[in-house]
């Protein structure tokens, strides 16, 4: 059976008793650019049947498919790395989105043991990284009042319903509250099929086609053999796994289902003049002179693990690994997360071309990070300090007093100050600061460090080597236990551009900055 609609027939199901299918309605369509939210949830504890989704591959495919539209100003893409439901709610409340991708694990149960009724759930990430079931009604409430016009549920069984109650499925519930276009999955879908669907859907939408046209193009893409599939077949690597046998995914073309009563209506009003963003601003987040990728894809598990280590009480974290593995990107994203949670952030890099010497850094601390009261105290007492340790203690006591103990120090590229033989720091000022932080213990600041080699055992309290960078066909993991200083993985070949890094199948988290 070939995919695609019967000529003249709609591609979606009608839900409710609204307006009939037919001519499009163009009343008060929002102007572009089209604002897209790519929200993914990847809990640590999926069941054996559903397994773990290849979230980074889907994100990279969506980003690449929309790349030209982003560069030309037709598309504005947001890719958060926090899969908690309260963060999802906050994004919908604070920002305007026209298209939302909700990617993760979905469940539909014919009978709810507690209520005795069928229902649908989506598995968001809980505070501890484990799955948190959120019911369809609660998800629908999060969309109320939002400007969202299309939701794509890249989740198993998100379009499934009960014959006894047709509005119990997640897709049906979202369409029922007034979202004009909702795409759900009738049954469980393979990762490869979901990724192909998302990529083709975005590529078609990037050409400013209608949603129904994009859905049909994406369904056809599920049946097409990709160059990667061709290579796998030639190399004989399609045995032993359902998902690595391309032909077995073809029958899933029919699983994506579009709910819409007006499928011919445009998603937005495309009659606007796009404003291409500045490339440096589009792909770089400037963190006190340290360039970070604005769209952070990959290293999801490491980021969550580091947050859990901090929550357990660790105050100093070291990320090691060869150049180009994404140490700065990961630590910088972690620092931004902590900053968003209310921790003031202080940053310095030991890189040779960094804007500040150590002496200039100390001056900047006084000017930019201390209020008048604490600045005057530092300047008054500095003359009484006889050692670097006393200076560090003076600064830290006043910074912590001003921030009420919520302070993050991000110190990058320390390998330029280390002895290659044993990893010991050869910088008296920095050694003094780290020693003062350790002396303060749990009352001290959070310290994030990056280096290509492990520090001497006395220099830092918690070290983690960074594993191999993300590839679309593999998983990434931190190798070694806390305190293990042996870095692992191979360095990346450097690429000049963020999009090029994605097209080369490298995670932006591993982009060499």
Helix percentage range: 25-40%
Rg: 25 Å
Strand content: 15-25%
Shape field: elongated
Query: Helical segment tally?
Result: 16
Main sheet properties: 9 strands, mixed
Q: What is the annotated CATH architecture of the largest domain?
A: 3-Layer(aba) Sandwich
CATH topology name of the largest domain, in short, is Rossmann fold
For the terminal residues, how far apart are their CA atoms?
A: 49 Å
Uncertain segments are: 1-26, 48-52, 157-166, 238-244, 467-513
Indicate the mean pLDDT: 75
Overall description:
- This protein is of the alpha/beta class.
- It folds into 2 domains: 227 residues, Rossmann fold (3-Layer(aba) Sandwich), CATH 3.40.50; 231 residues, Rossmann fold (3-Layer(aba) Sandwich), CATH 3.40.50.
- Helices cover 33% and strands 16% of the residues.
- It has 16 helices and 16 strands.
- The strands form 3 sheets. Strands 1, 2, 3, 4, 5, 6, 7, 8 and 9 form a 9-stranded mixed sheet that branches. Strands 13-14-15-12-16 form a 5-stranded parallel sheet, with helices on both faces.
- Helix 15 links the parallel strand 14 and strand 15.
- The two termini are 49 Å apart.
- InterPro entries: AAA+_ATPase (IPR003593), AAA_16 (IPR041664), CHAT_dom (IPR024983), P-loop_NTPase (IPR027417).
- This is AAA ATPase domain-containing protein.
- It comes from Candidatus Kentrum sp. MB.
């Amino acid at each position: 059976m070939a995919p695609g609609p019967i000529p003249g027939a709609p591609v979606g199901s009608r839900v409710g008793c609204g307006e009939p299918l037919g001519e499009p309605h163009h009343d008060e369509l929002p102007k572009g650019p089209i604002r897209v939210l790519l929200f993914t949830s990847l809990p640590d504890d999926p069941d054996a049947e559903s397994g773990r989704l290849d979230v980074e591959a889907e994100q990279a495919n969506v980003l690449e498919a929309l790349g030209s539209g982003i560069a030309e100003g037709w598309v504005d893409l947001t890719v958060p790395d926090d899969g908690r439901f309260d963060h999802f709610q906050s994004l919908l409340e604070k920002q305007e989105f026209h298209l939302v991708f909700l990617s993760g694990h979905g469940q539909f149960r014919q009978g709810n043991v507690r209520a005795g009724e069928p229902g649908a759930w989506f598995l968001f990430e809980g505070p501890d990284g484990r799955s948190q079931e959120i019911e369809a009604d609660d998800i629908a409430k999060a969309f109320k009042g939002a400007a969202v016009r299309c939701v794509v549920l890249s989740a198993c069984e998100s379009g499934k319903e009960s014959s006894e109650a047709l509005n119990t499925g997640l897709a049906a519930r979202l369409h029922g509250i007034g979202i004009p276009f909702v795409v759900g999955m009738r049954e469980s879908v393979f990762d490869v099929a979901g990724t192909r669907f998302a990529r083709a859907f975005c590529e078609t939408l990037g050409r400013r086609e209608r949603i129904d046209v994009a859905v049909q193009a994406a369904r056809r893409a599920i049946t097409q053999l990709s160059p990667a599939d061709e290579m796998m077949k030639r190399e004989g690597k399609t045995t032993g796994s359902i998902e690595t046998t391309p032909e077995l995914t073809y029958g899933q073309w029919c699983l994506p289902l579009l709910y819409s009563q007006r499928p011919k209506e445009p998603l937005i009003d495309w009659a606007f003049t796009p404003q291409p963003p500045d490339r440096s601003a589009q792909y770089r987040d400037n963190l006190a002179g340290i360039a970070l990728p604005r769209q952070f894809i990959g290293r999801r598990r490491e980021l969550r693990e580091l947050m859990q280590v901090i929550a357990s009480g660790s105050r100093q974290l070291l990320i090691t690994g060869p150049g180009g593995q994404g140490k700065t990107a990961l630590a910088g994203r972690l620092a931004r997360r902590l900053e968003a949670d209310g921790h003031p952030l202080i940053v310095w890099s030991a890189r040779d071309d960094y804007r500040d010497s150590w002496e200039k850094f100390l001056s900047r601390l006084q000017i930019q990070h201390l209020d008048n009261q604490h600045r005057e105290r530092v300047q008054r007492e500095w003359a009484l300090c006889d050692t670097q340790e006393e200076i560090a203690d003076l600064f830290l006591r006043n910074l912590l007093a001003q921030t009420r103990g919520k302070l993050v120090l991000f110190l990058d590229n320390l390998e330029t100050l280390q002895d290659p033989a044993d990893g010991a720091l050869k910088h008296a000022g920095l050694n003094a600061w780290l020693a003062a932080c350790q002396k303060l213990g749990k009352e001290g600041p959070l310290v994030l460090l990056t280096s290509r080699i492990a520090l001497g055992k006395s220099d830092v309290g918690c070290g983690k080597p960074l594993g191999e960078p993300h590839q679309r066909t593999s998983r990434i993991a931190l190798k070694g236990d806390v305190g293990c200083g042996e870095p692992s993985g191979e360095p990346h070949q450097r690429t000049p551009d963020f999009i090029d890094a994605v097209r080369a199948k490298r995670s932006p988290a591993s982009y060499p900055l």
